[in-house]
Amino acid sequence: MAFDDFDLDNVPSNAHRLYRLIHDLYVVLDVGDREVLQPLGLTPSQYRVLVLLDANFGQRLITLSDRLLVARSTITRLIDQMETAGWVHRIDDPSDRRAQHVALTSVGLALRNQAYAAHEHSLEDRMGVLGEHDQQHLIDFFLQMRTALRNRIIEIDSQRE
Amino acid sequence: MAFDDFDLDNVPSNAHRLYRLIHDLYVVLDVGDREVLQPLGLTPSQYRVLVLLDANFGQRLITLSDRLLVARSTITRLIDQMETAGWVHRIDDPSDRRAQHVALTSVGLALRNQAYAAHEHSLEDRMGVLGEHDQQHLIDFFLQMRTALRNRIIEIDSQRE
DNA sequence: ATATTATTGTTGCAAACGCAACAGTTCGAC
DNA sequence: GTCGAACTGTTGCGTTTGCAACAATAATAT
Q1: What pTM, to 2 d.p., does this model score?
Q2: CB-based contact B114:B36 (threshold 8 Å)
Q3: Which B residues 43-62 touch A at CB under 8 Å?
């Protein structure tokens, strides 16, 4: 893997530089995640679902879909996998017969905690290149951007109706 | 699409908050990209390749693979598509008979410029939620992180040998 | 020179994902 | 209450992508 330090100097705007960097960061973080999670038999997607669950009421599938920003069908198949693996189980929602909750089994809970600890440790290690102060700074920026960009999507969706 | 403003407060560390935000940002940016590029018949992946090309010597496939951080096979298939579409053509490298260069056709060049302008406009619009000063700040952070994270991957790769 | 190793691009295969369509259920207007 | 619209989860299907294996070529060691 040869990482050319390809020049952001050819890029005309700061907006575009930011764009490229976010893309690269996402990819590089994902590669790191796989290395941490693979020994536990988890993909990043499965891990992200696992983290959102608990052993009590769990979460509805549509909630998982919304929070992870993936299609409902993707969640259906992820939960199928994880149910087969014995990590989660589906529970019918008593107040809405369309809906189901997904909750962790005891095996799933143990795996969740183990994976979470490992990932957390790795993340703090990787993010450690930035000081705590810088991290707080970044979080503020990102929250601002995420909110603005999400609202824009909601606006566009409304216009479609 | 219901965007719960799900709490980052449950998240224990700043490192993890950053992680989630980068993930969300990437996804939301990608959704925006698709909206801009779809009218031009381009996917984000095709666009990213197009931007790296020119009409002269072009780029080698392995270079595209390295810069975009995707598998070589992915580039092969992307270039297949784009060659069929008439946007690019393969040129044998005279100094290395294994290698090929990919260069833009005149159609490809026109498309590249059109897509680039549209994307650039959209990006500045979307990134505009942050001031120029904040953007510069972010770029500095990201460069720092990208460099550190990439070096880490290279280290791990070397250990494998 | 020759043999081993590395690199470049391609292909088969499987996994992951989104979109559209669908059935069952709930909500809302009237 | 009733009917149409909206929501929830599932499935079929096509697209995208990475990994492993491969052939052709280049680089390196001896």
Answers
A1: 0.82
A2: no
A3: 48
